[in-house]
Amino acid sequence: MSKDRKSGSIPSMEASGDSLTEETVVVVLGASGDLAQKKTFPALFALYAQGHLPKDVHIVGYARTKMDEAEFHKRQTGHLKPPKDDEKLAKSFDEDVKGFTSISSYIAGPYDEDKGFQELNKRLEEIEDQRKSSGKTARNRVFYMALPPSVFTVVAKGLKKNCYTNDGDNRIIIEKPFGKDFESCREMMSALKAEWTENETYRIDHYLGKEMIKNLLVLRFGNVFLDAALNKNYVSNVQITFKEPFGTEGRGGYFDEFGIIRDVCQNHLMQTLSVLAMERPVSFSAEDVRDEKVKVLRCIPPIERKDLLLGQYAASGDKPGYHDDDTVPKDSVSPTFAAMVLWINNPRWEGVPFIMKAGKALNESKVEIRIQYKDVTQGIFTDISRNELVLRIQPSEAVYLKMNSKLPGFSTRAVPVELDLSYTKRFTEAKIPQAYEALILDAFKGDHSNFVRDDELDVSWKIFTPILHWIDGKDGEKPKVESYPYGSRGPEGIDEFTAKYGYKRIGNEDYQWPQTNVAASL
Fold this sequence. Notes:
Rossmann fold; carbohydrate metabolism
């Protein structure tokens, strides 16, 4: 091992493509929209404040909205959160904001006309010419499309025709959703690939930037005991759960076009599943990781109707129901809750149900992976709990293993307990970056490993398209959608649904975590 390399280093994970370290212009298209203001600009600011952006970087906002520089800077920094009760940090924050806005400018223009992109290119050349006069020659350009999918292809074409530089690197970052089904995704990807190479394209699924998803590779392949027990011989079932405690909140019309499966399952949770279930890659370099993800996705057949449970939230108390939104069609069956089972037909996972659950207007905010192991041989035990490995993606990242232990004292009873790795307890000084910060930095580094490759999209849409067409009524009939109260755990049949695939709830009403009162348990 190199003397400069610390114990535990992962060389292939540290390696990346061509990193943009010098002169770079970042163009944020859709700069006046919610996504740019709430996610893109705060992520760029955090990277700027920590010194992670390329040297001599300049940020150009582009959108149809006409506004002056002052209004743009107000929107650009409107969602930045200053530190509280620390005068020194507050002063540093204010200085960073001034520095950030000083390297940012704005230009208004249409998305579907060459003249708009030609004006944008003039602005980029003005910025780059100033650098050239000071001896700088590189002209790297990164285009971040914080845009609705309806304009993805036309903007990508306009950028390539009018704003593509031949004197540096060009990169284009695209937000989901990537189509609505297999056919529309292929059409979109074909149009994009006609203009931009795969190496220039970075398709963001922000779940791949989350700390726990990135840690999955190390947890699995850096721990012999863990990876050895992740297979059909030991695992009864796997649950991947996404829960939001709020409804569509005025976005019902937009949401109804997609539904929870397109919004969450086909992308975020499918990316989570592929990282969890894939085989060990040759290295942690981008293509090796993505090759293994595609391999495992190809082993998953299309979801069957019998393996699907759909729901829509209804009014409860002062909380409105989904159909109370005037923008939602009264006959809509677009699900706000979905539970489905996927099967991976390979030697590791054959016969193990992967239960995917996602819903809005539920009882809590949580995203987690729950791997439930098979029953202990019962001979010497009476109704002993199953083991579970739980990886909490958000909030408050944690990994804990539910196991059985003898209750201390004279008792001869086994109780479920936890081996607990909560990040806030174990890594007290850690600053975990937001997903968008991590992914934008990866794009600057030229690291594709946490971005979605075109063939991943192709295979993933094949799995979901049949049930999506059924829900959309393209087969001449629509599915039954169960109603559930706002703030509940979901449809009433959810426990029966998961039990059908072997899931058992651990413990009983007196089960407590993370501490067990011995006297109360006797």
